[in-house]
Amino acid sequence: MTAFILKRLGFAAITLFAVLTIVFFIVRVLPGDPALAILGDQASQAALEALRVRLGLDVPLYQQYVEFLGGVLVGDWGISMVSGRPVIEEIIKVLPATLELTIASLILGVVVGIPIGVWSAVRRNKLPDYLARIGSLLGLSFPAFVSAVLLLLFFSIQLRWFPVISSGQGGSLADRLRDLALPAINLGLIMAAYITRVTRSAMLEVLNQDYVRTAHAKGLAFAIIVWRHCLRNALIPVVTVVGLYLGILIGNSVLTEIVFNRPGLGKLIVGALNQRDYTMLQGMMVIYTLIVVMVNLVTDLTYGLIDPRIKYS
Amino acid sequence: MTSPSHSPRLSRSAYLRIALASLAAGLFKAFNANKTSWIGLAVFVIVALLALLAPVIAPYDPLDQNILNRLKAPSAAHWLGTDYYGRDTLSRILWGARISLTIGLMAIGSAMVIGTLIGMIAGYFGGRTDLLIMQVMDVLLAFPSLILGLIVVAMLGPSVANLVIAIALTAIPPFSRIARAPTIAVKNREFIEAGHALGYSHPRLMFGHILPNIAPEVLVMGSLWLATAIRVEASLAFIGLGVNPPTATWGGMIREGFENILDSFWLALFPSLAILIVVFSLNLLGDGLRDAVDPRLKGEQ
């Protein structure tokens, strides 16, 4: 177990290092001079030179690379070219909002997706199955911003149940939940569509196995067979998919945050793109990579919790 | 999937015809296994025809502004209403379909070719080559595709070619994975061994003998990824990284419609439905076919 964790940690470190290297060079090969981009055409040569020194752009590339890697490790992710504040500070300020949204949608996706997936598999080729299949296929056909716009149109503008613009800045718990509701429903239903599909196909595979027939034969209640015996064995692919689709969830959260005007990483990255804030973009890529690498690690470790037969080697 | 039987004396064109025929037969069987695929295909073909014929059937010029006629609700003259500049929404949706389909088809076409090649090389040669290639692909896969696309387009600038590059980049790793697994399964079969014994070259075995066997799976994933590509293109346009205005793109139209959502909701609604119809039809098509080509799901129908 320890050896396995160490191995996975090693792989995570390699992935992180590789992506950081790619990120560093992508940002460096961007056309245009960052100093000029910040100060504009009217800036004097001396001012440009001074800013380049401040941004650390005056030293050779390999030195910048070493400093960049070292900086990432100790939490020095550079200074935002636009706001002048440390990148990591700006990211940490909005990170809770994005995590809140992501985790809420993940929970919603699991709570809605797994029961429907199981039900659909058990009633295969019956009406509930067809409905679940069409529904989930429809759910994953929605670009996140399209569903967000439609939800906003219907629930906020037509029915006025929810605020059109989230405040997201503290407030009472009830306010926060109201702000969170529509964005989380938007992402959660898309997540539920993915989870329904993978739960269904995993359950179908398990339901055909011999031990299920044996359980039937010895007179075990159908509900116990399905929920205790089959679901547990079907969960591994489900966890894998949840881990994999977290990347999609992160991408979709960008779109959701824009539509609902919610603070978070999504609004931060779009702002950084519009203002050509390269250090901020670099920091955003680092944080996204960190999140994805960590999720993959947790996904791998979860397998052992679900299925004790899995030996970590 | 049957391996095409042939003698080494068969001419190249005759062999190609056999390979294509068996591929077509395989796909036809897959279509019939799940009728919903036909519905998906029919809807997608209609959309593609509408896009192709846009210059002929669009009632107005998609860029024609008419300030006196702006933000009009759907009417007999403008079936789907007009936008902030008085442009006809229906015409813009028809022309927007061309952008979506062009970018999607070009991006997925190139990702399919490059990704399949990479996956076949990894699976065919195995060992260190496989390890190295798949490690690189895993690193690329680790990155959320929308974020990757966002950064690439922001770097290179929003044009049709750059959007194709950005979307293709995000789709190459999955295609290499899809192509690798069946390549490993096929390369150990007797007919490949026989090819080795006959002294066939690696490229000949890979393209002549393995490719036809893995093509159905790759093509099916192609239809599902085309749906994803169209979704990503629209998402990028919605963020403001689509083909530059005033060119009509679905994502861009929703972005503009979103600004007037309180009084003219149809501006965001109709292009949303257009995206949904196309993506859903492709998912319906690919999903039905996948059930048929996925050996694990055999006997489910």
TrEMBL record, chain A:
Keywords: Cell membrane, Membrane, Transmembrane, Transmembrane helix, Transport. It comes from the Bacteria. It is found in: Cell membrane. Residues 95-299 form the ABC transmembrane type-1 domain. It is a multi-pass membrane protein. GO terms for biological process: transmembrane transport. Its main location: membrane. The chain crosses the membrane at residues 9-30, 103-122, 134-157, 177-195, 234-255, 285-306. One of its GO terms (cellular component) is plasma membrane. InterPro entries: BPD_transp_1_N, MetI-like, MetI-like_sf. SUPFAM superfamilies: MetI-like. The keyword Cytoplasm does not apply. Belongs to the binding-protein-dependent transport system permease family. This is ABC transporter permease.
Automatic annotation (TrEMBL), chain B:
It comes from Stappia taiwanensis. GO terms for biological process: peptide transport; protein transport; transmembrane transport. The chain crosses the membrane at residues 14-31, 37-60, 101-126, 146-172, 224-244, 264-286. Belongs to the binding-protein-dependent transport system permease family. It holds the Pfam family OppC_N. Residues 97-286 form the ABC transmembrane type-1 domain. Keywords: Cell membrane, Membrane, Peptide transport, Protein transport, Transmembrane, Transmembrane helix, Transport. One of its GO terms (cellular component) is plasma membrane. This is ABC transporter permease.
